[in-house]
């Protein structure tokens, strides 16, 4: 890296560090700066291994400045960025766009309608995050409806344990549904509405094969069953309900416009026969099941939903359902369409079916494997639901596809956990051991938390040997500062104590590093999105409680998962 590039990196890093500090009214963080810095400067990426070392002193200088000095410096370097932050501050109360025609409704009711075919991946969190936030803003109600009317074997089949799992995930995100429905409990309601629709001439039974009807539909030709009288249709529908037909033998179609310009809207299927029993005991006897557009459309009306948010790719659903609403003379809810959300960082596709396949093949340990882009995974890593909600709400409701940077979630989470996370040392598997020499202190006393003197210090007995990471090993004759302990000079396989004068760090540029006693450190497995890491934590870490969030200095935040009886500790890495 030449001097010109280094100077560019330092300048850009200072701007991003200032933005990070000013926006969040806290100290800047190297990890939070790295994401936007590399994203906006692709030519920096080839120097990715060197950049943290270049920007760390810059971030430290920013953190040493006052709040007012940070604003003044940002105004000097990037006035537009400061203006944008101040504009966001002024509009903090307006988190999301106004709901359309909200003033026309006495109460706002919005629904989240998942298929309980497994835990949620990260993309699923967007709907409850936004709906829950709208419900809070409008003093409205968040309705949860499990759309579980497809018991067929396959990726869409409901899983019994997923119902409670999803409810637990919504609670984790910070919301509580006002009402919870299971569509599989409501079959008789759908049958009643199908009968009413038949009486109104809005539906007919059809025994065409799927291929036959597709050919007719695409040619805008009516199938031979379309003019069937209501009495015959009713008899055949009752036979469907009684299970007298086999799968594929008979369907009930909603009569629309067979010449509609959009073939997808022509006489669509409202009910079909499924021979596979539903996994819920309460619904296992049913064989005639509504299609999602029929079931969802009826439920939205009956449960008083005022506003629906759905993907831009589901625009046809509203158009299909509108035919049913017209037959019943119902008012259709307000609809907001949005684009898909993509999440960076993960190698695993954000797909329930893909994740399940990887679990079943043994490539992932489970839904909470740190490599999986799922809610159970980030939760086990110690990411707070609030951090996810804030990031999702920040994406808005654009019809364009949007990208969620996990660095945003991590930045939000850092603010939530930093103050409470005690500090510890952790040395990763690529390490070197050194014998201590000279008149060094009996113990090291690094602070429990650098911002909370009242919490005191950790007392670490170094013994006669210490362990440091390979990347921190200095050249012979050079000095390093073992944090909380003192200054040492490397002499072959030894580290000679040379004193505790902090000017070695402040004025002479001696590196401050983390370390652990080689003979008493705690063997620790760290599970991360990039794979498992084995290392050693300082002895006192054995006292950390499961589920506690800690920060391994110069490594990152982690959640204590369990303390094993065989003296091994397991933690899940959260973020830097």
UniProtKB/TrEMBL annotation:
Domain Glutamyl/glutaminyl-tRNA synthetase class Ib anti-codon binding: 421-497
Cell compartments where the protein resides: Cytoplasm
Domain tRNA synthetases class I (E and Q) anti-codon binding per the UniProt entry, residue ranges: 512-561
Catalytic activity, EC: 6.1.1.17
GO cellular component terms, semicolon-separated: cytoplasm
Segments crossing the lipid bilayer: none
Motif ('HIGH' region) on chain: 114-124
Main location: cytoplasm
One record GO biological process: glutamyl-tRNA aminoacylation
Reactions the enzyme catalyzes: tRNA(Glu) + L-glutamate + ATP = L-glutamyl-tRNA(Glu) + AMP + diphosphate
Keyword Ribosomal protein applies: no
InterPro entries xrefs: Gln/Glu-tRNA_Ligase, Glu-tRNA-synth_arc/euk, Glu/Gln-tRNA-synth, Glu/Gln-tRNA-synth_Ib_cat-dom, Glu/Gln-tRNA-synth_Ib_codon-bd, Rbsml_bL25/Gln-tRNA_synth_N, Ribosomal_bL25/Gln-tRNA_synth, Rossmann-like_a/b/a_fold
Keyword Protein biosynthesis: yes
Domain Glutamyl/glutaminyl-tRNA synthetase class Ib catalytic: 108-415
Key words, A-Z: Aminoacyl-tRNA synthetase, ATP-binding, Cytoplasm, Ligase, Nucleotide-binding, Protein biosynthesis
Sample GO molecular function, one term: ATP binding
Family: Belongs to the class-I aminoacyl-tRNA synthetase family. Glutamate--tRNA ligase type 2 subfamily.
Function: Catalyzes the attachment of glutamate to tRNA(Glu) in a two-step reaction: glutamate is first activated by ATP to form Glu-AMP and then transferred to the acceptor end of tRNA(Glu).
Protein name: Glutamate--tRNA ligase
Organism for this UniProt entry: Halorussus aquaticus
Origin organism lineage: Archaea, Methanobacteriati, Methanobacteriota, Stenosarchaea group, Halobacteria
